[in-house]
Amino acid sequence: MATKILIVDDELSIRRTLKEILEFEKYQVDEASDGLECVAKVKRTCYDAIILDIKMPKMDGMEALERILAIRPETPVIMISGHATIDTAVEAVKCGAFDFISKPPDLNRVLITIRNALDKSHLVQETKELKKTLKRSRRQVKEMIGKSEAMQRIRETIDRVAPTNARVLITGPNGSGKELVARWIHAKSPRAQNGQLVEVNCAAIPAELIESELFGHVKGAFTDANKTRMGKFEQANGGTLFLDEIGDMSLSAQAKVLRALQENRITRVGDNKPIQVDVRVIAATNKNLIEEIKAGRFREDLYHRLAVIIINVPPLNERREDIPLLAEEFVKEICEEHKIRPKSITKDAMIALQNLNWTGNIRELRNALERLIILSDKQITKREVDLYVLPTMNQKRSDNAKVNPQAAVE
């Protein structure tokens, strides 16, 4: 989308000159001949910058400036005047103008000022969006549901470790809720006030791209590096970096992560200039890292750097008493998502759900409940559980047996 600039001046020659030079620079330019027309246009259109004359009929520039800032407070306004004095310039800037240029305007000065104003405007917008994202992410951190002893222990550990900068290693099977633990540690930490939680799924990124993803790269560092790119460590500066499934990270990337943790500095791929970072690292894995170390697939020194605090999230089968609370919350959430009336779960159906083998953990439970809500009538009964959940589980068990016969025997 083209950058829109409004030129406000009662002198046609000034407007034409400025318009020609700005359109040559690929800006989209609009014009107004007085303050009243300017304010009317600002009400209808959101401009990226405004060039505003001071001496004009109907409404002068200072009054127009006041009204513009009331309507679009973040739009940078550059004042111009042929009757410029130091006092006028100071007054304009005090009233909220971005800058002041004397007439006849130096075109190079105008272009530089426009670029600076746009840079500031974009920075303000990015900051606003980031703050919105932070607020939204805090609101979206779901409650940790469960009354089991394991869940109570996890909550207590989070409350103790969150206010510190200690690194945390979260262990547990897939779908057990490791990401939620990481989000709660960040949400309850001082870093949540101004920093963000940046998540990286190490298992989902190809080995040849993981270093670029974590540390960024400079333009030309490799074939597809068309521009310089900030990595996840830099994005998480002042906040928290969550390295999910770190057990799948290559040994070369592990060495660089270790160095970053030791020195609090990173270097972009293709560059040799170190960048200082202030990042708290939380890692998670579904693997036994001690066994991975013995097999030579994980660095022992990195393990000790990451595992200052270890939080183990047990599988759902080991905390079945949490299933009724989880089911109640998921039913409410899923019904809201699908815009349907909440459905109740009968006692027999709940007992049936508690007795199932949840190898996919909480993620599998939620998927099963979504299926039940969509396919059942007003209530979820044991009949629906037997009809819509058991066959899927049996099929999955059968598929697992074909892939891994020994696991099926065990």
Structure, described:
By secondary structure, the protein is α/β, with parallel strands linked by helices. It has three domains: 4-126, 3-Layer(aba) Sandwich (Rossmann fold), CATH 3.40.50; 141-314, Rossmann fold, CATH 3.40.50.300; 317-409, Helicase, Ruva Protein, domain 3, CATH 1.10.8.60. It contains 18 helices and 14 strands. The protein has helices at 12-24, 35-44, 61-71, 86-94, 107-140, 149-161, 178-187, 210-215, 232-235, 251-263, 289-294, 300-306, 323-338, 347-355, 361-375, 382-388, 390-403, 405-409, and strands spanning 4-8, 28-32, 49-53, 77-81, 99-102, 168-171, 197-201, 240-244, 265-267, 274-276, 280-285, 309-312, 344-345, 379-380. Strands 2-1-3-4-5 form a five-stranded parallel beta sheet, sandwiched between helices. Helix 4 (86-94) links the parallel strand 4 and strand 5 (99-102). Helix 2 runs parallel beside helix 3 and helix 13 (323-338) packs across helix 15 (361-375). The chain is elongated, with a radius of gyration of 30 Å. The N and C termini lie far apart (60 Å). The relative contact order is 0.08. Mean pLDDT is 88; it is low at 406-410.
Question: What topology does this entry show?
Answer:
Layout: E1 4-8, H1 12-24, E2 28-32, H2 35-44, E3 49-53, H3 61-71, E4 77-81, H4 86-94, E5 99-102, H5 107-140, H6 149-161, E6 168-171, H7 178-187, E7 197-201, H8 210-215, H9 232-235, E8 240-244, H10 251-263, E9 265-267, E10 274-276, E11 280-285, H11 289-294, H12 300-306, E12 309-312, H13 323-338, E13 344-345, H14 347-355, H15 361-375, E14 379-380, H16 382-388, H17 390-403, H18 405-409
Parallel strand pairs: 1-2, 1-3, 3-4, 4-5, 6-11, 6-12, 7-8, 8-11, 13-14
Antiparallel strand pairs: 9-10
Helix pairs in contact: 2-3, 13-15, 14-16
